[in-house]
Amino acid sequence: MGVAEQLEQELPYLRRYARAVTGSSEHGDGLVEGVISDLFSANDEPIDRIRLFAMLDGKVSDVDGGSETNTAHALSSVARRALLLTAMEGFAPTDAASIMGVGEDTLSDYIAEAEDELTSSLATDVFVMEDEPLVAAHIAQIATQMGHRVIGQAITHKDAVEACLANPPSLLLADVQLADGSSGADAAAEITAALGIPVIFITAYPQRLLKGVQGEPAFLIAKPFRPDMVKAVISQALMLQASGSLAKK
């Protein structure tokens, strides 16, 4: 597979990872663009998925240790990057360790630290916007197992907005396609504009939210999903929100 084909195949996943660690679609995509620029400046080397993510994680690490000018987009801890690489992107520990340039024992320590953060994070109020009852129940169960409180669910745009404004949650878990054909993305935009809370989209239609325009989501999980993926992204979103690092978009 050529460089262009490999890059095209991995681009959605590179963007997902970069956005999750920065909490910003704009900043995350900027890091990916930097990888692409570097890649085509040194196109004499073989390319694969591990190398692409290693290049991206290197840029994340560079910014993470940068000056105070970067605090508006402060990146997650090294530990949570390790958890996102394994739980969200599905890398085996050996490959994740290679991406981060650490030994497997160190990677295991990072993941354990991130999981401790996840389980010790303060409980918060969560709202689920999902029109499939079994999926909604599964998402609610995952959030509850993490210690969060699911304070409401809705299957339409109108019901979701009204419920969230009447009893504000601290996190929104949202599908894109709702029961009456309305847009979950539009409902989420109204809710987050009013409340300033993070939203995680969990959808079978991720392409509807990735159109290369401003305001795309920082946190996006494709269906079918694994519980550990949802837990990792919830933890990351809340950690960035608590630290004031989440982009206000």
Describe the structure.
The chain is α/β, with parallel strands linked by helices. The chain has two domains: 3-118, PhyR, sigma-like (SL) domain (Butyryl-CoA Dehydrogenase, subunit A, domain 3); 123-225, Rossmann fold. 57% of the residues lie in helices and 9% in strands. It is built from ten helices and five strands, in the order ααααααβαβαβαββα. Strands 2-1-3-4-5 form a five-stranded parallel β-sheet, sandwiched between helices. Helix 9 links the parallel strand 3 (171-174) and strand 4 (199-203). 39% of the residues are buried.
Supply database-style keywords.
249 residues, alpha/beta, Butyryl-CoA Dehydrogenase, subunit A, domain 3, Rossmann fold, five-stranded parallel sheet, 5 strands
